[in-house]
Amino acid sequence: MIPRREPCRNFQRGSCQYGDRCKFLHLTQPQTRSNPFGFGSQSSSQFSRASQQPKPNTFGFGVQDTTQLSGVNNFVARNQNPSKLFENKWIRPTATTNSTSSQETDTQKQAAVHECTDPESCKRQIIEDLKNEAPLWKLTCYGHWKYLPCDIVGDISYEELRANAYEDAKRGLPLQSIVERERNLWNSKVAEFDNLLRSPYVIRSSGPTAVNQFSISSNTLTVSPLSNKPPTFSSFSQLGTSASVAPFMSSGSLISGTPSNTVFTQPSFPKIASQISGGSEMKFGASGTVGGQLPMQQFGSSPGPSNSGRTNGTFVGEPRLQQFGSSPGPSKSNITNGFMAMGTEQAPLRSIPQFFSSSSNQSSGSLDGPKAVQSAPNQAAAGDKQDIGADDTIWLKEWDIGEIPEEEPPERVCLNINY
Amino acid sequence: MSGAPPSGSGRELANPPTDGISNLRFSNHSDHLLVSSWDKSVRLYDASANVLKGEFMHGGPVLDCCFHDDSSGFSASADFTVRRYVFSSGKEDILGRHVAPVRCVEYSYAAGQVVTGSWDKTLKCWDPGGANGPEHTLVGTYPQPERVYSLSLVGHRLVVATAGRHVNVYDLRNMSQPEQRRESSLKCQTKCVRCYPNGTGFALSSVEGRVAMEFFDLSEASQSKKYGYLLNLFQAVAVLTLYGTFATGGCDGYVNVWDGNHKKRLYQYSKYPSSIAALSFSKDGRLLAVASSYTFEEGDIPHEQDAIYLRNINEVEVRPKPKAIHAAAPL
């Protein structure tokens, strides 16, 4: 293959999927284009936000700018370009003249006005992100649009995991249990992402759609059907999150119009943690969460979530996960990252619920096959045990991770999620 | 995998820590290097002479360290304490405590204070001149929305990055409330934040390996730009050089130097045997210290020793390129 004269733009940006096969030159000295205008200076036209109005980074949610929304959709559509690896994610539809550079300026304007009013675009964005750029570190928070609060909260940093592991080891906790705990943590978080993927912002319309799959383990969040109030997650009590749930929804910012419920409605999630393997299906998207940026902060952050106000109730806590300090973190240095399953006991991730709120916890009997975008390895589990009985108590019981009912829960036990 | 890295990686520092390295910093005045490690030690090296000059122990893994001046420094540890050292005399004491592991420590020359961020969701400012023990040194405690993951100072500005992708910008002269409260423009957990030397903004890196360049000025013309590509796998540790370019290191073992303005990679150093845990440029830009330390992202597998490499930097590697240059082979 004879490289053409031009330098490869992708390589210059840091990643060219063709590698040696690329027909452009892979140089380490990039060609300069315009005058370097100084680090961080604003003068270059490349970075000027041409048309869109600027939005301060602290824009709140709920900016009602419908015109932008279409822009967002375009943006999303345009970004569905698998061949570009990670590069084009942030390309602004209105690329300025400077080819590559401008393409890379993130469309802040676009982002600024993303209001999550269109669940489909949010969903596309999420799917795209999780498919193409799934972070290697799974215990991360995630916001599907920049500057917006997190959709999945409760992140843990590598250092925290490691510090906890060391602490545990110091306390004499056997390596195995530390690893186990980390692994659970990991899995539950992956399940959370999976759920997000499956049903982000599905909002309204159908109410608890299959989402129910959550394999939420036990903790049962007392499913409080019919109430948009965040369920009192008993399980969360540990974290105290239950309280937090409340704020959640309200946040106007989030989801425009979506009822707060989102997350909380799904009480059941809490347990996701450790086992999520069942493929927590929580579809959170379904209900309210949409738009969501439900910041569910679960981790560490205090039991109640709500980040800085915005988050609605996040809670969900994952109380466990983070419990730094309190619970011994993954013990041992070795564990540190491994995500070794975090202590099982702790784990139930409550956090997951957040998203799911929308879909009532119901463990969707039908479990749609997980769309699996990213299927966490454990997800497979999804046990389906469920003894579906006519008895409503089944819907209120504590579900183990992996349990998936065979049928959808009847309406009467579904949370009323109104978007 | 075993075996020495190619000689292009730089020379290895003698007597490295025995466990993972959490951070390393060059002094602003000399080639002294302060290294904090998960083996609970803080070590001071003379990088040019390749000599270990001092070692201090904490009760728990040390998560961050910084210099005060060439003869003293601070460290932040998982044992909840912030310690201060006087290198010449070997004296150390506890500057203060948090209620959870202290994740970051910085010294502000502008304010004359030590700033620490902790997983107890607070930021604390300390006056190191306070001579009478921990109870007299605390200047203030500032609650954060979440656990503090990283912080950086430039001039009078302090940028704090927490869990949940929050970013707070403070003016050290008025800490009563943040100057700006933002969410990260990156989608995933923030890994670290570094301010630009010219004080106009900061770079945020996330666990997905991206770096976002943001500006303090919120006017339209200064909105943040973002890198469109994945810079490094998994962990991105960003360090800013004299020229306004920055270096990142990741779990893939590569250190790359980027030109933020042009969004180009300027240079890539040869692969290090383990993940890059920390990077630091010396004050004059001649040396780059690279901590190659297995970060357990794959669990407990046999791995290379933790090591610190020092490489001499050529200006060409880190200077933004004003003109097209062809065919420079990466090292």
Verbal overview:
The complex is a heterodimer of chains A (419) and B (331). Chain A has 15 helices and no strands. With 419 residues, chain A is mainly alpha-helical. Chain A is flat, with a radius of gyration of 22 Å. Chain B is mainly β. Chain B has a 4-stranded antiparallel beta sheet, with no helix packed on it. Chain B has a 4-stranded antiparallel beta sheet with strand order 2-3-4-5, with no helix packed on it. The two termini of chain B are 19 Å apart.
Q: Please compute the radius of gyration of chain A using only Cα atoms.
A: 22 Å
- Please state roughly what percent of the residues of chain A sit in beta strands, choosing from under 5%, 5-15%, 15-25%, 25-35%, 35-45% or over 45%: under 5%
Dominant shape of chain B: globular
Which parts of chain A are unreliable, with pLDDT below 50 for 5 consecutive residues or more?
A: 29-113, 202-390
User: Taking all residues together, what is the mean pLDDT of chain A?
Assistant: 49
Topology:
The complex is a heterodimer of chains A (419) and B (331).
Chain A lengths: L8 H5 L52 H14 L19 H6 L3 H5 L6 H14 L25 H14 L3 H24 L42 H10 L10 H5 L6 H4 L9 H5 L29 H4 L9 H7 L14 H4 L36 H4 L23
Helix pairs in contact in A: 2-5, 5-7, 6-13, 7-13
Chain B lengths: L10 E2 L8 E6 L5 E6 L3 E6 L4 E7 L4 E8 L2 E6 L3 E6 L4 E7 L4 E7 L4 E6 L3 E5 L11 E6 L4 E7 L2 E6 L3 E6 L8 E4 L6 E6 L5 E6 L4 E5 L9 E2 L10 E4 L5 E4 L5 E5 L4 E5 L7 E6 L5 E6 L14 E6 L2 H4 L13
Antiparallel strand pairs in B: 1-28, 2-3, 3-4, 4-5, 6-7, 7-8, 8-9, 10-11, 11-12, 12-13, 14-15, 15-16, 16-17, 18-19, 19-20, 20-21, 22-23, 23-24, 24-25, 26-27, 27-28
